[in-house]
Design brief:
Blueprint lengths: L7 H38 L1 E5 L4 H13 L15 E8 L5 E2 L6 E2 L2 H28 L3 E8 L2 H11 L4 E5 L5 H7 L2 H8 L4 E4 L3 H9 L1
Parallel strand pairs: 1-2, 1-6, 2-5, 6-7
Antiparallel strand pairs: 3-4
């Protein structure tokens, strides 16, 4: 006499149950795959802007963005370009006069031209370094050079380009320096029209930068 577990009817039901379980697992895997593809597509479409200057803290912010906002898990990460980042650098205007105790002293056109050329060379060096970092991480990048007050121009550019996220580095200024020089990150945090992420480098990087 066959036991209940050995009857043909129950064996058929058990087999059918396994088939249903396999189908459920396959559907779950398909749903996870679709979710992963949707997340990857969202990363690709994300419009990110990173402000850079000659400071190491700004390049740390760019490096952080490339490693954390544009990387996907999987084999395709190492061979596929993901996302787009806009690297913006602002050249501060050169004031062609100084005001000592006496009358104003105006710089000659030759001096002004020399300063402008030096600014252009400095901007080229800064953006070339930024582009190399982006290329190493296989992230497409575009560069933008602006003239004016860095705090104001960065916020204006982020608004005009409708960026999804603005990243700026924190230079770790003291309270006294913040009072006199102001802080780009603080200004952007209060005036940017888009989400902003202030990336603070490790203490050892801040200490080396503040000592130079």
């Amino acid at each position: 006499m066959e036991t209940a577990a050995q009857t043909p009817e129950l064996r058929a039901m058990a087999t059918e149950g396994k088939g249903v379980a396999i189908e459920v697992q396959a559907e779950e895997r398909r749903q996870l795959a679709r979710k992963a593809e949707a997340e990857a597509e969202a990363v690709k479409e994300m419009n990110v802007m990173v402000a850079v200057d000659q400071s190491e803290s700004s390049f740390y912010a760019l490096q952080w963005a490339l490693e954390n906002l544009f990387r996907r898990k999987g084999a395709a990460v190492e061979t596929e370009e993901v996302g787009m980042v806009t690297v913006v650098h602002v050249q501060q205007p050169f004031h062609n006069y100084v005001l000592p105790a006496g009358p104003g002293i105006y710089a000659t056109s030759t001096v002004i031209e020399s300063v402008r050329k030096a600014q252009e060379q400095n901007s080229s060096v800064i953006l070339s370094r930024a582009l190399r970092l982006c290329k190493d991480k296989m992230v497409k990048a575009e560069t933008l050079i602006l003239d004016g007050d860095p705090k104001e121009m960065i916020c204006q550019a982020a608004e005009q380009m409708h960026v999804d996220l603005l990243l700026v580095g924190s230079r770790g200024l003291s309270k006294l320096k913040r009072a006199f020089l102001g802080s780009v990150s603080d200004y952007c945090a209060h005036h940017a029209k888009c989400p902003i992420l202030i990336v603070k480098p490790p203490k050892e990087k801040l200490s080396r930068e503040s000592s130079t």
